[in-house]
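Team,

Forwarding the record for the chain on the shared tracking sheet. I've put the sequence and predicted structure together so nobody has to dig through attachments.
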Amino acid sequence: MNIHASIRAMLPLAAADALDAEEMRQVEQHVRSCDECRRELDTWGVYTAGLQRLPQPSVPVHLIARTQEQVLREHEHSATLRSGSLMFSGLAIYAWVVNIALWGVARVVTGGKLCVLGTNLLSLETWLLVSFIVGGTTAVTAALALKHHGELGRNL
């Protein structure tokens, strides 16, 4: 965008006195040499003056209080979600560490062999697959229970 176009885009804001000092200085400098922008600034000035003469609606006090309460509730909800996510992440890391430690202990205790139906349950791949299935099933069940509990709490 060239300088003329950028100044032209700032004219409504200049008329409303909504620019910072540097931007206002640029607009004033430009309109001294550009008749087209000076006329447009004058037009915007007429609109601004007319808008300022219109009655200004007052904001009901209860609306402000209600909006503040809503913002606080949403902030608390966001904080709860963040702390829940951190707790979940910590628990997931803890579960994997315990799972790998348990695998190591089981290998030491059994000598590295625990065969069921011809499959060594203590091979790393089998151990991780079984623990993923059991852990995933447990996590989904817990999530559904918590979701159901949360819905019940909201309906009470």
